[in-house]
Amino acid sequence: MIKNLAYTKPAPIFALDLGVSVREKPKIRTSIIQMAKRIKVETDLSTEEKIKEAARKVFMQKGYSATRTRDIAEEAGINLALLNYYFRSKEKLFELVMIEKMQKFFSVMAFILFDTENSLTVKVEKIVANYVDMLLENPDIPIFILSEIRSNPAKFLSIAPIADLFHNSHFVVQLREKRPDINPLHFIFNIMGMTVFPFIGGPIFKAMGALTDDSFAQLMEERKKLVPLWVESILESK
Amino acid sequence: MIKNLAYTKPAPIFALDLGVSVREKPKIRTSIIQMAKRIKVETDLSTEEKIKEAARKVFMQKGYSATRTRDIAEEAGINLALLNYYFRSKEKLFELVMIEKMQKFFSVMAFILFDTENSLTVKVEKIVANYVDMLLENPDIPIFILSEIRSNPAKFLSIAPIADLFHNSHFVVQLREKRPDINPLHFIFNIMGMTVFPFIGGPIFKAMGALTDDSFAQLMEERKKLVPLWVESILESK
DNA sequence: ATTTTTTTTAATCATTTGATTAAAAAAAAT
DNA sequence: ATTTTTTTTAATCAAATGATTAAAAAAAAT
Fold first, then answer.
1. What value, to the nearest 5°, has the Cα angle with vertex A113 and ends A111 and A114?
2. Which ipTM did the prediction report?
């Protein structure tokens, strides 16, 4: 077996003769490479994975600030100290979840943005279908990501110089070609708005009783066909 | 002048002979009517209003959980105790702000929903223009409302039996008349998505550098004209 | 002018909460 | 079998945080 993977044994308190007690910070023993090894080798990830899974659930539902590490521990059915043993801190654990979700959300768009194969029409079909499928599985990803970014924009949006990448992407070029008279961002907003917004506003309609989980899912399935048609008619309009 | 408006003087601690000390809860002395009177009479609302204004700012920016009452006090330039003196608790103060913002957001839609005068076309124009105008003034209302509702759905969505009101609204009836083949919710999602989503996703595009505050505002001004046209072409499509 | 009421403050409390520690239990290595 | 390492726990810490208290200052009423 591999040596202690996350930390050294907790450092003991030692009392200074001034009567002040100082706490040594635990130091990580493992390098990233060793960490990777561990993940491959280890047969039983269940505790670590249980915590992660609980963290996903609780963080997604309540957001970073409203989540207490004790909530996560309870949800995972483990002792609170274990959470810090495996993940060092609430923030580290959160970052793991956040990065996972951001990746899930933005990769759908990124994949299309830089695809140079397909026609505009096909791309729109793919964006919508992929988002709807992904969001039906993870309906609260948009609110989660957006609200965490809002309360800490600096932290998660160090994606500074992506602007050119965006403007020069094949997809945006195609949009500009098709409708040079209209800022491509308008169409991006339209596609994303029609596709993602229902998942953001949906809970309200459900609470009103205007919608059930089932009828919502069905509606979104319909939208996989309808939204591309509507986008088409927008692109052709006038 | 009117008597102490918010609370009695704080009740003193009294020690039981068991060694346990109990704290009396402060009791509100003022009725709602007196409270209303006060608001009319009082010449200087500045402290109360300063706190409220600070609360609006901080709550909107960081959300309920990430906001510390000390943040609000500092922002308002007042002592922390004053906040509790005027508003009794963080939660009470928050509810005030939340209700204000929900009202602002939903009244735009409600106003259109039950308007029996105008044509579908005019209504769509009004929804879009009213939302864009309101949201340019208060860009973070949507994320604020949605994320607070997410973390506490029960509290803010006791709007239980609004479903019928919605389905029978003049606007929804008009939509069903125009396109009996398509669930009116699809069009609601489209209009709201195209109008509100940019304010939700905007911060990301700004962070990417694909958009400045000015160019965003300009884009949204354009959308006041464009979105109704696109909605029209969606309603006519196929 | 004096008393009463309202507003404001500094100090402090009690609870919550993220984190740590020391020791026990379990697993692995020898 | 014994030792070492890893995992888990119960207890506790320290800082943060919402709230309260008692008293001072200011304003209003008398």
1. 75
2. 0.83
Straight-line distance from CA A134 to C1' D20, in Å? 49
CB contact under 8 A, B147 and A149: no
Instruction: List the single protein residue with the shortest CA to C1' distance from C11.
Output: B81
Q: For residues B21 and B14, is the Cβ–Cβ distance under 8 A?
A: yes
- Whole-angstrom distance, CA of residue A70 vs CA of residue A79: 9
d(CA A180, CA B32): 59
**Residues in contact with A1: Cβ distance below 8 Å, sequence separation at least 6, in sequence order:** none
Distance of alpha carbon B174 from the chain centroid: 28
Per-residue pLDDT tens digits for A92-113: 999 999 999 999 999 999 999 9
Quickly name the fold that domain B44-88 has.
Arc Repressor Mutant, subunit A (1.10.10)
pLDDT digits (tens, 9 = 90+) for B157-176: 776 667 888 999 999 999 99
Stretches where chain B sits below pLDDT 50 are 1-44
B chain contacts of residue A60, beta-carbon cutoff 8 Å? none
Tell me if the domain spanning B97-236 has CATH number 1.10.357.
yes
The full set of domain ranges for chain A reads 1-42, 44-88, 97-236
Distance CA B132, CA B177 (A): 27
